[in-house]
Each structure stands twice: as structure tokens, then as C-alpha cells.
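Same chain as my last thread, 369 residues:
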Amino acid sequence: MARRRKSNDAGGINLDSLMDALTNVVAVLILVLVLVQMDVTQIVVQYFENLEPATPEQVQQSKKELEKVEGKLKKQEALLTQNPPTPEEIEEEKRQLALLEKDAKVNEELLADLNQLKKLERKLRVERDIEESETTRLQKEIAKLEAQLDATPVLVSVPTEVSIPNSRPVPNNADMYYALVFADRVHFIDPFTPLDLFESEFRKHKKDWELERIKRQGKDRYIYDQKKIVAHFKDFDFKNSRGQTVAVLPNTYGTRLSLEIKPDKKEGGTSLDELKGTNTQFQRTMSTLARNRQAVIMFYVHPASFNSYLLARPVADKNRVPAGWEVRGGESYRVMIPDLEVRRLKEPPPADPNKKPKKQPPGIKPSLD
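reply #2:
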């Protein structure tokens, strides 16, 4: 009988394939390395071939740079050979460093203050320029006014004589009208027409404005809402044909309301120049007023406007309208609304018990002259 051949597979693993693979990989790597080395060699050769030769200036500059580097290296080597600083020297350096930091902080604060001062300086310079411009403008205006003043002829003032009136009392049944004389203008005041318009409008709405009714013998007492009345008449048309404004004035601590008649200071009434002419507004008013036999006119004259009064008074006398005059500086006329009680807006403060009442001179009733 023939002997069987022994098989390697029965006893272990066959590594021939693994060895073949490793050999192939190593061979590939060697090949790649050879190729890379050849490529690098070519690139280096090409770089040196393409490299331009250095100029003498570049060589000299490189030498200087090399000398600086060598000098720094020698200094560092010398420092390495020196002895280390002592603790006392280290502390001294720390103190010097602390002083430098403090000085730096102070300098920083001073720099901030300096910036603020610079901003303030710029602001003041702008204000100064504005003031200089305004001063220049005012100086030019003053020079212009001085030139006009030099060219204006000097007026000779004529003394004004005002005789003391021979007064007589105003009749009890008189219809008192007024004329406000101020700013060289005469403003005729009719207090009756706005009062009639107010009473007519009030009768239409008094039920809406009634707050309280107090019954008493004879005639009941009515108290009305002051706020509603004033608000209603704020834009009310009093039909004043003389350019005068008529307003219902509130009364904070009082129970009575009044009308204020205020003329137009610049355009209203009759001016001093117009009084010198004929057929003026004031003349027509006096002519109309002469038809009322109970009419009386009272002139309220501002101290600086007697010239206007002296021209207006003969107009009233010519139309035989009884007249009188008083010195007053007001620029409006107020008349209290009769038979109307309203509620106070605020209660009046209590009177000072320590305050002594001042003695008032006796009132002077208006009179005619």
C-alpha cells in the first residue's frame, strides 16, 4: 500500500498570500519614494536655476541685518553671564514700577481733563463768535439810528394846560359810557350792549347752569356753575363792531362775574392824527350818543395821552354830551354782571388775624365838568 503525503493545511495557516501582499506594498512605497525624491530634486534644481543673483546692495543689507542679530545675540549672552539681581534690587524695581503706574494713572486723568478743557474751549469760541457777530450787528444798528437821529429835526415841546374841572355830580338815571385814552388813541366803550347780549344768552341756558336754588321770602336765590358759564362764553360773538374783545372773566374766590372790554391798542379807536381831522369814528359816535338825553361819557385818561384827550373832549362838548374825566392808566374796562351769583372755584384763604386793616381814603364818585 502506498504512503499518504502530509498536507500543510492540516497543521497551520498558510502565510504565502500575506507575504506576497506585503512585498507588493513595500515595492509600491519604494517606487513612490523614488518618484517623489526625483520630483523634489528637480524642483530644487529648477528653483536654484530660476533664482536671481543678489545685488551688492542686497548683500550689504543682509550683512547689516546679520551684524544686528549678532549684536543682539552677544548682548543676550552677556546678560546670561551676569549675576542675577538681589532681592533688594527686585524690590526697588517693583517700587519704581508702582511709581510709574501711578504717574501713568495721573497722566491719564490729566489727559481726560485736558480733553474736557478743549471741548469747553471750542464751545466758548463758538459763543464768542456769535457774541461778536451780534455785537457787530448792534453797532451797525446803533450807527444807523444815530445817523437818523442826527437827521431828525429837534421838536419844540408846547406846554399842555389842563384846567381843573368845575365838577357836578352825575345824574342818578344817567347812561354812563366811557372813553379810554391811552397810547395816543381814544377808544369808545359801550358797556350796555355786551351786557344785554350776555343776559339774552344766559336766559337760554340758565337751567343747564343752575347748581342750587335757595328758597326765601320774596325772591328765591339761585347759584350757577361758574365753570360752565365761562366755558360757554369763551368763543361767544358779542358782535363788537369796534374791533374790541369782550370776555367773561372767572372769579376764583368770588361769587360775581364780570365782563372785560379790551380795545385794540394799535389799530382800534381814533388816533391822535385822526382826531385833528373831520368825520372821524369818535365824532360819529358822539353824534349818535347826543340823541340819548341820559347819555354821559367819562374819559379815563392815561398820563401820557392828555394831548389826545384835549382833542377828543371838544368833540363831546360840541355834541352837547355831558362829560367828565379821570386820570387812569388801565387799557381795558371791566363791568360787573348784575343779578348773577356763581359758586366759587376755591374757598378764600383765612384772613390773617394779626394783620391790621389799612385805612383807605374815601372813594370819589365820578363827576361831570
